[in-house]
Amino acid sequence: MIRQYLKKMQGTTISPPGVNRTEILCSWIGGFLGIATVGYINEKLCNGTGMIMLIGSFGASAVLLYGAVKSPLAQPRNLMGGHILSALIGVTSYQLFSSHIWFAAAAAVATAIALMHITKTLHPPGGATALIAVIGGDQIHSLVYIYVLVPVGIGAFVMLIIALLVNNIPRSRRYPEFWF
Hints:
Order of helices and strands: HHHHHHHH
Shape: flat
Structural class: mainly alpha
Oligomer: single chain
Number of helices: 8
Helix content: 55-70%
Radius of gyration: 18 Å
C-alpha cells in the first residue's frame, strides 16, 4: 500500500520541450513591461500616499501571463477573478481572525483556492494575494477593502493590458485563449 502510494510520485510523463527564442524574448518583454508599468505607477502615483501598487503575487502572474500564455490559469477571467476574489477573502480573513495570524493565513489561502475553483477563476498567484492581505503588514492592513481595488484590481488590469498588447505581436502567439 505504501509502495503504491510512493510510486505515484515518480511521475508519468517526460519533461516538456523547451521554447524557442521568440517565446523567450516575448516572455521577457512582457514580464519586463508588465512589472515595470505597475512599478512605475507605484512610484509616480503612490509614493507618500500610503497606497501601494506592486505586490509580490504580480511576479507570479507575470510568469503565467507572459510565459504561459495558453494556460487556462493565465486567461483574463482567471487573472482578474482569481486576484480580486482572493483579495476579498484575504482581507476578510484578516478582519475576522487577526488575533491568530496563522489561522487567518491558512483560512485565507484555503478559502481562496476553493472559491477560485467554484467560480472557475483558478489563478495560483491569487493564493499569494490572499496571503499578502493577511501578512502584508500595516501598510496593507490599513487599506482594508481598498486593497481589492488598489493594488490588486488596478495592478492586475494593467498587467492584462500589457499581456493583450505584447502577446499578440508575434504571429506564433495569441492571447487570450478565452475571456469567460
